[in-house]
Amino acid sequence: MTTTHERERCDRVVFYAAAVSSFLESSVPLYTRELRTMFAGDPAFLEWLDATWEPEESGHGRAMRELLARRWPEYRWEDAYDAFLREYTTYCGPHLLRPTPAREMLSRCVTECQAAMLYRALSAYSTDAGDAALFRSMYEDEVRHYKVFFREFRRYRASERLGALEVCGALFGRRDKAQVEDAGTALRYVNYGYSRELPFAPLEVEGATALAREALRAHFPSESARLMMLKPLAETSAAGRWIARGVGLAMKFEMQVVV
After folding, report:
1. Of all helices (H) and strands (E), which one includes residue 246?
2. Are the C-beta atoms of residues 16 and 190 closer than 8 Å to each other?
3. Are the C-beta atoms of 74 and 184 separated by less than 8 Å?
4. What is the CATH number of the domain that holds 90?
5. Distances 196 to 13, 75, 134, 150, 178 between C-alpha atoms, Å
6. Domain count, the chain
7. What is the pLDDT along the chain (259 residues), one digit of tens a residue?
8. Does residue 256 lie in a domain region?
9. Any residues with CB less than 8 A from the CB of 112 and at least 6 apart, and which?
10. How far is residue 257's CA from residue 150's CA, in Å, rounded to a whole number?
11. Is 163 within the bounds of a domain?
């Protein structure tokens, strides 16, 4: 008879999600370094980055690494993370920040939305009460982070006068780029720490992505994701609200469970 522990060890959805999250969240200090430069003239925002955002995001990384070590102790996390970091570092330089503060805050809104919705789906999917509570806590953190970045976006957008079309293009440009550079890069390196003692065969990027989409589809908060994703667009103007409604309807027909 299969035990609960054995079933949880065979859960590749949680394994790959935790590994990807551990890589990305552990790398947040690289990004904070560049944000400090862009927002050097905004001490209140920098204080929040240093005192709240970076510690909480890094804490997510530690929590995911601890989950991996506890459930899959044979997984060679350091080997995989080191390989990931060699490439990911090239995506975190100052030349890759968005050109203005408002656009950078918009980019952060997209990333926080993506993370929040994924953690919420994982919380609903998880059969282990401890895992579910952990993912729920991480979801709540990401929502709070989103609210701060959204507030800062509103403030900077007013001075930069970004229009609805500019915001719409930036939103979906960042969404697509994040899926490739962030989650996509992390996923490509998860198997660098694979051990034959793990209770499942490794999956390539396409297989892991398909598995996650199928497993999380029923748990993904699609309506909340659309509202959160499109809130900066609806904020811009009456035209922005109309565009957000149209885009929101189109998003309902997308065949993916992550924004």
Report:
1. helix 238-251
2. yes
3. no
4. 1.10.620
5. 18, 9, 28, 44, 31
6. 1
7. 568 888 999 999 999 999 999 999 999 998 898 899 889 999 999 999 999 999 999 999 999 999 999 999 999 999 999 999 999 988 776 556 678 899 999 999 999 999 999 999 999 999 999 999 999 999 999 999 999 999 999 999 988 888 888 888 888 887 877 776 788 899 999 999 999 999 999 999 999 999 999 999 999 988 899 999 999 999 888 888 888 888 877 776 554 444 3
8. no
9. 142, 143, 145, 146, 149
10. 23
11. yes
Question: Cβ(91)–Cβ(111) under 8 Å?
Answer: no
Q: What are residue 74's phi and psi, to 5 degrees?
A: -80, -10
Give Cα separations from 157 to 14, 103, 180 (angstroms).
38, 8, 26
The DSSP-derived string for 52-82 is IIHHHHHHHHHHHHHHHHHH-TTS-HHHHHH
Quick count: other Cβ atoms within 10 Å of Cβ 129?
8
**Cβ atoms of residues 86 and 78 within 8 Å:** no
Rounded to two decimals, the pTM is 0.91
Domain with 60 in it: 4-251
Q: Tell me the C-alpha distance between 46 and 37, whole Å.
A: 10
Distance (Å, rounded) from C-alpha 90 to C-alpha 144? 28
Cβ neighbours of residue 246 under 8 Å, at least 6 residues apart? none
Distance between CA 258 and CA 118 in Å, rounded?
7
